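tl;dr need the bound structure. longer version: we got a ligand (magnesium ion) that a collaborator sent over and nobodys looked at where it sits. i said id run it. heres the input, straight from their email, havent touched it
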Amino acid sequence: MRTTDEVARLDALRQLNLLDTPASESFDRITRMAAQIFGVPVAAVSLTDSDRQWFKSRVGVAEPSMPRADAPCSQVVETAGMVIIPDLATDPVYADSTIGRKGFRFYAGAPLITADGHGLGALCVLGTEPHAATEPEIKALRDLAAMVMAQIEMQHSLGRTDPVTGLPNRLQFFENFDDLARENPGQLRFVALIDLARGDQVDSLIRVLGTNFIDEFVKLAARTVAGLIGTHRTLYHVGETQFALISEPGHSLDSYYAILEAGVKASVVASSARLVTTLTAGIAPVTLGTMRSRDALRAAHSAAQDARNSEGAIGVFSPAMDGPHLRNFDLLRAFGTALEQDDELCLAYQPRIDLATGRCIGAEALLRWCHPTLGDVSPAEFIPVIENTALARATTAFVLDTGLAQVRAWQVAGLRVPLAINISAANLEEEDFALNLQLLLAKHQVPAAMVELELTESAVMADGDNGLARLEALRAIGVRIAIDDFGTGHSSLAYLQRLPAQIIKIDQSFVRGMGEGNARDRILVRTMISLARQLGLQVVAEGVETAAVDAALAAMGCEEAQGYFYARPLAADVFATWYRRFNATPRPAHRAA
Ligand code: C2E
Ligand code: MG
Ligand code: MG
């Protein structure tokens, strides 16, 4: 590769602000799929930096990077073409390379090329056996590489970078923060926000000196702050004159405060506008996984605001002062009371449809809470708040008791409605959960086969082998296990094989994306369905809102579906009437045409 090409290529790579960012589920999903398609243990999105191959996403590799020198991915970039090595051991170039020496035998890499023609790296797979790649495998790898590029360009073009400073912006901050939280739950980090000037100072600067001056001022400040925090740390441009950063692990509040203070002083000295602006900063201590990215940034922002109001340079966020935390606290207390009342909580039932016959063949119980003063509170808000507390168990107990009583009541009225019930990670920690469920089934005279328990992937994995043992115990009593919101968590289909689950429920985000014409979501849904079926799992699609999606899912071989297209979650008494009418109509009427 000519040196000038290589300089432009590296420039293009750096512009994307991808290097040294945290792993991201949107890429990991593609990497996992590549490994599954080839049936190999290792796959990676490997970006070719000046001296290293850095992995934006990886399965089966512990190291975040490897030397560029003798990596076949580097050849992919240099030739801008596919590289396939059926047997590394007999390959004259790679037999003695780093990966060859590690015992890998098979390599395939597809180039990641930008719209401008710059090669960024490769989507590659590595196997421990020699392998002659088939035409469909090669095509799949090329398609997946195109999906990686679509993802990269979409992230970039969807305004992930600030046009003035070229720094990653607020959206990118949210995404990186969420990825970081998923990877390191429970870790203490600090989010810092640096605000260069008060709103009125910015206004008067613009009036006197024009917007160009502000742009230059912000650009210079960005360079100064970026220089101070070092090249391997990301600075985000989150507001007109605001920058944010996330601390490395291992800092205490004192140590991080000291670093930020030194940085603030240095940038004040360097700033040309120092006489007419006042810079402040805020720090928010965040335990990863307990706070959403938007809340973390808002917390740092409000700390900076506090500093401004008290004329200090740096403020520290105190959760006691914070509204949403108070709201969560209020919800927690009020929900405890709701569980003791008999009129605040009830269940809604969303029909589940068999796509082949178009008939309703069951329902999912969804909790509804109507608080006397807070009004209707969505489970999407209150479940996450109570899920990690002692209230989770009492909640599931209420849902099971109410739901099973309803199944029995329908049975008596001549309706057979198997019920899916959502449970939490905390339930898997209850030693006697399966036993209590058996007692409840007996109490309501409902056969275990009428009950399905839904858990998210992260709930299953929260307690590792203990969780698996509890799931086995549940399966042993005859209830079915479904993995809810599949595709949004961390598990792979390979991992699913180890779970005693019979059903996966494809998350509605993919199904909705498919309905909006998103080709990538369509491919993902199709792949999830076909791989799940190969693993002997039943597939339910959630969030079906249109006839087109219903028909597409049926054509893909998806067995069941739920969504507003068929029915919204219904009150218990409405459900029976709806059910009789729906199942009396010949189906699938909506697909007849
Ligand atoms: P989920 O279990 O994935 O339930 C599906 C959610 O999607 C429900 O929201 C449902 O009303 C909504 N939905 C169904 N079809 C459509 C559609 O076509 N379009 C759209 N946009 N949405 C659709 P809901 O009732 O607000 O529940 C949210 C989440 O709260 C549930 O997601 C579940 O994770 C949790 N949840 C609800 N009830 C319980 C419960 O009793 N126990 C536990 N542990 N969690 C619950
Ligand atoms: Mg569910
Ligand atoms: Mg779901």
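gonna send this back to them w/ a short note. Residues 484-485, 505, 507, 542 surround magnesium ion (ligand 3) (CB under 6 Å).
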